[in-house]
Amino acid sequence: MPPSGDPPLDMLSDVRGKNVLIVGATGGLGSLAVQYLNAAGANVDGIASQNEWLEKLPLQRHFNYSNKNFKSELEPDYYDLVLDCADGKCYHWIATYMNHESSHLVSYSSPLIQMVENDLLTSLPTFFAHRKSIEDQLRSEGGVGLNLRYGFFNYSTCSFKKLHQNLRANQIKPFISETFSFSEAPEAFHSMSTKRHFGKVVIKMD
Questions:
Q1: Quick one: which of 17, 79, 88, 97 could link to 107 by a disulfide (CB 3.0–4.6 Å)?
Q2: Per the CATH hierarchy, to which homologous superfamily does domain 19-150 belong?
């Protein structure tokens, strides 16, 4: 749900039969989104740089960043929903491939947190202007039906219980990149800061 006054977007409702693209499909969030949306009946494609993990995901089609021509393999005016689970920069090129009549780009790399670190009062207007600028760019390149939302996690005991039940019911599992003991927490944080991960880094608490 965006903090900008726009209507909330429940991207996991009514996705059956919709065409979805996950950017960063082999990451921790991306791999869960692929499995969840596939279980919900969406037609899910993914982009990432790790072929071995891409092939393990329930994707209709997968595309690799290392192929410089991967964009030419995507279908124009095709995707109803695009989830950017990577660096939040796919808005530079994604408009061509979104459904021009009605589609959403949801990015999980919001600039809001970095802005707030400087000054909350000036950050919010700047954030709203930034979001509008990107949405205007998308609509200019792909049509008035293109919309942008930033995804934010809002803790709710009820919603987390429901999500957990859905994950178990559909046997959805996160990809684990590395596992550390609690005493190795400094090494885990160092690993996070120096590597590109495919999946989650786990610290065991026992």
A1: 88
A2: NAD(P)-binding Rossmann-like Domain (3.40.50.720)
